[in-house]
Amino acid sequence: MLVIKPPPVLEGIIKPPGDKSISHRAAIIGALASGTSYIEGFLESADTLSTLKCMKALGAEIEGPQEGRLVIKGQGLQGLREPEDVLDAGNAGTTMRLLLGVLAGQPFYSVITGDQSLRRRPMGRVTRPLQQMGAQVWGRQDGELPPLSLRGGRLKGIQYTLPVASAQVKSALLLAGLFASGPTTVIEPIPSRDHTERMLKAAGAPITRQDNAITIEGACRLCPLSLEVPGDISSAAFFLVAGCIHPRARIQLLGVNLNPTRAGILEVLEKMGAEIKIKNIRESSGEEIGDLEVSSSALEGVEIGGSLIPRLIDEIPVLVVAASVARGRTVIRDAAELRVKESNRIDLLALELNKMGAQVYPQPDGFIVEGSGGEPLKGAEVDSHGDHRLGMALAVASLVARGESTILNSRCIGVSYPAFPRDLARLGVEVREGN
Ligand code: S3P
User: Fold this and answer.
1) Per-residue pLDDT reduced to its tens digit, 59-68
2) Are residues 393 and 308 in the same domain?
């Protein structure tokens, strides 16, 4: 558990950890490349280590990560081997869904599973189109739930319109498309994060985009990567909100990924009246990055929905924390996907934040939040329910509560941001970790 005492001042400089989505993709695409890939700034967290373990079990030779440095000796597109044991994706939806795409292209048998949370998450959205491409897939509830087993190979390209905006499903199909005969086209009605497309292009894959349709041709070879992973805006988001809602705050966040398919949180916070400055915008390994400076702000409620949602889906829990202390009402719509993330983030976030005196009303596809108008929340004992983003969102809420708060089941924070408690402490927060 974490015990947090709200600090009188919140001040300092943070370098957020490497982007989780990009780190997963670098490990997978590096393992499929012909030659050695060099990755800097790789996120060392439980989720990305699950991907590395799976890629090793499939035959990739990997050194590191050591201080974010990773060396991957790729085996080439035809070089993976049948794993000797069940692959374990842990808590990571990205590991499981992207790997399903890769495994569908392999002429061998494999089984993949995950922890209790992942074994409850919907996989039919990936397994059904992969079956259409020709992969054999079995799983609980007709291929809906893990453990899943596959025998792949001999895929044929398809044209597929995504029924839900999902970068994981899109990426799985594009990766499978590398092994298919004929083109694979994925049509995304609403754009989602495009890191897979960017990285495959950098590796020389025959991938093109026309409006909302992305097409990939079967390939024989990918070039190795030389990549510096930018800071994760989804991790930075906790400090962006902390800086806005704390009455005496100034925080600098260095080297944050500003990819437009990820930066929706900045637009919404600005609309709410946040004092955020973006500095030193530059390019790093095909992604736009910059430094952010946030200071105490008088936030107003906001209404959000539609095509903005996939661009900030993982930041909604902490945005609800911001809304809880803003002036006026916030309405978040079109975010039903939050019910099938690492936990049911709609019901559980409302349950826990309301223990701190917030007024959060869960809706089928989002939230209605009545803001306190700057009045502090109250310290309480709350539970992450094993969901890293709920754990960190509750920690941010506790920075503006009267009295101490205890966040139970906080170990899950290591899924994406193991240094989060240490970074909080660097800003002057009294944080105690316990069992
Ligand atoms: C991710 C895509 C999103 C996001 C997840 C990471 C990715 O999931 O919520 O944390 O790396 O592609 P969906 O594809 O389910 O929307």
Assistant:
1) 999 999 999 9
2) yes
